[in-house]
Amino acid sequence: MASSFNQMFFLLIVILLNISITTKAQDTHFLYQVCSKYKFTANNTTYQNDIRTLFSSLSSKATHNVEFYNNTVTRKTPFDTVYGLYMCRGDIPSGLCRQCVGNATQRLTNNTECSHSVAAVMWYDECMVRYSNTSFFSRVTVAPGYPGYVLASPTNMSDQQSFNRLLYQTLNETADEAAKAPIDKKKFATKEAAISIFQNLYCLAQCTPDLSPKDCRRCLNDLINSDLPSCCAGKQGGRVVYPNCHIRFEIYPFYRKLLQSTAPAPAPHSNNSG
């Protein structure tokens, strides 16, 4: 009897742990948003409705296990046309990608700060959603207009000079790997390097697939050589995020392992709707 009870108790613990892990796996983490200072008038319900139509199409596409998607909701009046896309981080599972896109579009819809903004971009740790009244597809977006987001660990490495050499070398190798994919293919890479026999460095780089390899590498190069030195060099971790590309490094594993045999993500596809 005691043995049977112990088995049932163990099974209950396993079930509860699985529920906890599953719930935790679906958590998304908001990072930052940029809302355009340019607003459409409150009575321009056409543009507002087009944004909602766009968000609906993005959320719907994310349910089909697509990691990147762009779409255009067109009108006869160019001012009412809205362009948008989402991109999920290259290592996250499809369910978390879907959850993140849904959370981001909902947050943008209900966000008072972005209310009536003609353009906005929202970053989560797991995805990015962006829209605008002008086309930005296949173009590298740099400041001003869309400033990026940086976040650095408050803790410094003990040997910063040696660490920085390894950091820039590894990040550039990661960027090279991410950028070599042809246009409309997944541009994502991770790389590890040994800091010591006890500690590793973990790096991640990603671009939106609509960029050419050259533009992707240029975008990542700006982050590595222009933004990262002022915010994160010598730190135990840091990230720089822009609309077209992002990088991150830590001294602990923060990304999921990917099998090299994994099939490539479907190519981006644009639809028009009026």
What's the arrangement of secondary structure elements?
Layout: H1 2-25, E1 30-35, H2 45-62, E2 68-73, E3 82-88, H3 94-110, E4 120-124, E5 127-132, E6 149-152, H4 160-179, E7 187-194, E8 200-207, H5 213-231, E9 237-241, E10 245-250, E11 272-273
Parallel strand pairs: 2-11
Antiparallel strand pairs: 1-4, 2-3, 3-5, 4-5, 6-9, 7-8, 8-10, 9-10
Helix pairs in contact: 2-3, 4-5
Protein name: Gnk2-homologous domain-containing protein
Domain Gnk2-homologous: 28-136, 145-254
Keywords: Repeat, Signal
Describe this structure in words.
Residues 28-136, 145-254 form the Gnk2-homologous domain. This is Gnk2-homologous domain-containing protein. This protein has 5 helices and 11 strands. The protein has helices spanning 2-25, 45-62, 94-110, 160-179, 213-231; strands at 30-35, 68-73, 82-88, 120-124, 127-132, 149-152, 187-194, 200-207, 237-241, 245-250, 272-273. The strands form 2 sheets. The chain has a 6-stranded mixed β-sheet, covered by helices on one side. It has a 5-stranded antiparallel β-sheet with strand order 6-9-10-8-7, covered by helices on one side. The longest helix is centred in the N-terminal third of the chain and has 24 residues, at 2-25. The chain is elongated, with a radius of gyration of 21 Å. Residues 1-25 and 259-274 have low confidence and may be disordered.
Average pLDDT confidence is 84
Beta-strand segment tally: 11
Oligomeric assembly: single chain
State the order of secondary-structure elements, H for helix, E for strand.
Answer: HEHEEHEEEHEEHEEE
